[in-house]
Amino acid sequence: MISIVGVLFLVVFVLVFFGAFFTIFTGFWRMRGMANKVFTLAEQEMDRKLKEGPANGTEATPDPAICSHCGGRVTAQVAQCPNCGAGLP
Ligand SMILES: [Zn+2]
Predict the structure, then answer these.
(1) pTM (predicted TM-score)
(2) CB within 8 A of 70, min separation 6: which ones?
């Protein structure tokens, strides 16, 4: 009689234990997947911004490092374009 109750109690205890463990584990796993998704999204956004950020900057504002005469790349410090010899502002 006592052993049957004990076995029942043990079975219920094991079932509850595994249920709780499973719930916690699946919840953790789902949260991990969500965090991974957020991280990949942030990484993609950062990559996108890194790729088009400098390009947008050079296009939006007239860059002194580009010759207005021939369009060649020059350093901002020089007074004359090394490509065409035109004076730079
Ligand atoms: Zn030039």
Answers:
(1) 0.37
(2) 81, 83, 84, 86
